[in-house]
Amino acid sequence: MELEGRSAGGVAGGPAAGPGRSPGESALLDGWLQRGVGRGAGGGEAGACRPPVRQDSDSGPDYEALPAGATVTTHMVAGAVAGILEHCVMYPIDCVKTRMQSLQPDPAARYRNVLEALWRIIRTEGLWRPMRGLNVTATGAGPAHALYFACYEKLKKTLSDVIHPGGNSHIANGAAGCVATLLHDAAMNPAEVIKQRMQMYNSPYHRVTDCVRAVWQNEGAGAFYRSYTTQLTMNVPFQAIHFMTYEFLQEHFNPQRRYNPSSHVLSGACAGAVAAAATTPLDVCKTLLNTQESLALNSNITGHITGMATAFRTVYQVGGVTAYFRGVQARVIYQIPSTAIAWSVYEFFKYVITKRQEEWRAGK
């Protein structure tokens, strides 16, 4: 239809036939304008006088407009895949981070940097040693990230509609990230405890079941959530900074909010680095609560480090102020590709699932 190719000036000129316009086109345009003006005069929908725009049959669905009724499922599936891949790919660096956060490491486990630590662990303890505990981490990461992203997307939209209707609200993004963290950490905390105990140097645990049984029998079920409040104290500001930074960068790099892998990777990496550096002291305390490091326990008369305040005090007693930033290099190095992977994989699967659902709905 040639009407679609006309310039806006041709439409603004009224219904009269212009150069190159056939009488049939003029009649069609005249009728369309009369209907549009009639709706506009009656206070009808805004923009009714716009000519209809034909959709390109080859174009994909609107990326952010997920199919009705499938939104939560889409976010959960995409989030689960992103979480599992993120933790699996970055697990060796996570092992190094845990060891570098040790307050009084064994002389054989003192490392200058991440690469040296990874090389020495592989050379002295075996090729697969940095991967010990990966299975329990992947098992926990799937449901944890499914809840995490689904909750975030739902709350982000709901709160943005209240705070800034029709736009993006950084307050809504941060608040949604904080609430999503509550669900994520509740599902992930037991896996974190087991994982970090298996990552420590000279860990007596070679299998997940051995670690679970020992912790349960010696310390009780509460040990699996001993660091929960500290983890929330760390992750709530971490995720607030993370999501606000990510959404802020997306407004600049990807204002149309389309599927743009490079913008997702760059925004995710920058957001992860900023949030990781800011919350390292809390991560050191969380590691201490999870591992109950034996040498650090010697400075604590209660036998077990059971709370955030006690953990903060113990870290300071053992290593001073600098101890709060142990492993900061490994933590930032871990978070940059980790969040980049998480966001790029999540956005990719969200896009693919959305496109397939729209194609299925169109073919019905």
Describe the structure.
The structure is a single chain. This protein has a domain at 226-326. The protein is built from 14 helices and no strands. It has helices spanning 8-12, 23-41, 71-89, 91-100, 114-125, 134-163, 170-199, 208-219, 228-253, 261-278, 280-291, 294-297, 308-319, 328-363. The longest helix is centred in the last third of the chain and has 36 residues, at 328-363.
Give the key terms.
364 residues, mainly alpha, globular, disordered N terminus
What general form does the structure show? globular
Structural class: mainly alpha
Q: Approximately what portion of the residues adopt beta-strand conformation?
A: under 5%
Q: Roughly what percent helix?
A: 55-70%
Low-confidence stretches: 1-19, 32-70
Structural topology:
Layout: H1 8-12, H2 23-41, H3 71-89, H4 91-100, H5 114-125, H6 134-163, H7 170-199, H8 208-219, H9 228-253, H10 261-278, H11 280-291, H12 294-297, H13 308-319, H14 328-363
Helix pairs in contact: 3-6, 3-14, 4-14, 6-7, 7-9, 9-10, 9-11, 10-14, 11-13
Catalytic activity: Fe(2+)(in) = Fe(2+)(out)
GO molecular function, one term: ferrous iron transmembrane transporter activity
Family: Belongs to the mitochondrial carrier (TC 2.A.29) family.
Summarize the structure.
Helix content is 67%, strand content 0%.
